[in-house]
């Protein structure tokens, strides 16, 4: 019986090449799988998805040209491939920069150390978090518009320079005062680093996201734009509706309540907090 099975298998496997797989090969396969997965996620979440679709269509077109031996088209495609590659890098420079910055943010060893979550590791205190939350909902209740950027790993110096330099402790009273209508500092965004407000009236980059709801104006677009170019958490209070929204990682979550805002802030309160945990709260369908 066993001999029969052996003969049956050897009939099919004779002449086949079986590579000798070592543990290092398995590790290599796992690493490549993770890299390919991350690249696919990146492509899906950025404009690179459009690029990929464009490349696929171009590839299909070139294939047709090759099948029918359209030599001029094939020559042109061959000649322009280098130019197209450079053009793609130029067009997708912000996305590539963001992807590399994200890679730099990852701290492989921090999560292993259980004693790392100490106060030195803290970005801002509970008091600051409460100040921000209270200010947002108090401003929301009287429809005072506000734009608050909470810095994380990426320093926002270039955006601070577009505004007026401040150096004051975060509190709900100060934030409410800054965004009070018809006061010199109410326009633009406030940047918070740690427990301090570093500047006000800052100008943020506008998002060119086409899918964002048409009834959102430049304040929300600026919040989204800022979250696309850096890892900051951007809070918007709408002057029109009083709703509080949060932009992070190129996604806008609209109309969140105080508890949800507190959760979002507590996710970034510690430098080594796991960004994966973040997904459980806010990404549940407010994204427009
Ligand atoms: N690029 C920017 N950077 C920082 N702040 C900006 C930027 N663009 C607009 N703002 C702020 O947004 C205000 C205009 O908000 P606008 O009404 O256009 O936006 P909105 O998204 O509809 O918000 P709201 O719901 O509060 O009306 C400006 O007065 C300014 O304070």
From TrEMBL:
Signal peptide: none annotated. Residues 93-258 form the DAC domain. It catalyses: 2 ATP = 3',3'-c-di-AMP + 2 diphosphate. GO terms for molecular function: adenylate cyclase activity; ATP binding; diadenylate cyclase activity. It is an enzyme of class 2 (transferase). The chain crosses the membrane at residues 20-43, 50-68, 74-92. Its EC number is 2.7.7.85. SUPFAM superfamilies: YojJ-like (SSF143597). Keywords: ATP-binding, Cell membrane, Membrane, Nucleotide-binding, Nucleotidyltransferase, Transferase, Transmembrane, Transmembrane helix. Pfam families: CdaA_N (PF19293), DAC (PF02457). It comes from the Bacteria. PROSITE patterns: DAC. GO terms for biological process: cAMP biosynthetic process. Probably a homodimer. HAMAP family: DacA. Catalyzes the condensation of 2 ATP molecules into cyclic di-AMP (c-di-AMP), a second messenger used to regulate differing processes in different bacteria. NCBIfam families: diadenylate cyclase CdaA (TIGR00159). Belongs to the adenylate cyclase family. DacA/CdaA subfamily. This is Diadenylate cyclase. It comes from [Ruminococcus] lactaris ATCC 29176. The gene is dacA.
